[in-house]
Amino acid sequence: MSTHHAPTLDPSGFYVTGEHHTENGTLLGFWLYLMSDCLIFAVLFATYGVLNGSYAGGPDQKMLFDLPLIAVNTAALLLSSITYGFAMLEAHRGRKGAVIAWLVITALFGATFVGIELTEFHHMIGEGAGPWRSAFLSSFFALVATHGLHVSFGILWMIVLMVQTSKSGLTEQMTRRLSCLSLFWHFLDIIWIGVFTFVYLMGVLK
């Protein structure tokens, strides 16, 4: 006769199950990844802080940065964070179609952000202000392009989750994946606020 082992309580009062451990392991691993990403961006911010005045006779921030355009770009990314929040609300309500619709809107805002950033890079390089021109520009492109690559990866990840949600529905595993991407996407928003303030706004106003 098979024996049934009743679930035990951990010190916090929650039942310990295999699913409980899987969920905690996934979230813990993802938080560790985000902390490693924080270190990468901290190094890039520090590098820019040291080199942002090294123009080598080339253009400076006031000559290069189009602050109104960057403000539009910032608004697009911040709005994408709000729309992703709506997607998570619908996920917890079990509305698959609404989740996919909000994810599509979020991805479009993200694509707008990347498109404007690429336009800015193209214009700067066309003006002879590429990353090879000065230490300031090398540190600028390294920081901003790294963030842009993260946003591009987030859009790709979002598309994959849209396809998976469409096929398998809002399972517990799928909701957990959406939650991980939510953390990642909001993290990118926080980093961009730092970039906008420290790089663009302070660069133009100093």
UniProtKB/TrEMBL annotation:
Matches recorded under SUPFAM superfamilies: Cytochrome c oxidase subunit III-like
Gene3D superfamilies, A to Z: Cytochrome c oxidase, subunit III, four-helix bundle
Membrane topology: Multi-pass membrane protein
GO CC terms: plasma membrane
Regions crossing the membrane: 30-51, 63-87, 99-119, 140-163, 183-205
Any Gene Ontology biological process: aerobic electron transport chain
Keywords of this entry: Cell membrane, Electron transport, Membrane, Oxidoreductase, Transmembrane, Transmembrane helix, Transport
Gene Ontology MF annotations: cytochrome bo3 ubiquinol oxidase activity; cytochrome-c oxidase activity
Task of the protein: Cytochrome bo(3) ubiquinol terminal oxidase is the component of the aerobic respiratory chain of E.coli that predominates when cells are grown at high aeration. Has proton pump activity across the membrane in addition to electron transfer, pumping 2 protons/electron.
Similarity remark: Belongs to the cytochrome c oxidase subunit 3 family.
Protein's name in the database: Cytochrome bo(3) ubiquinol oxidase subunit 3
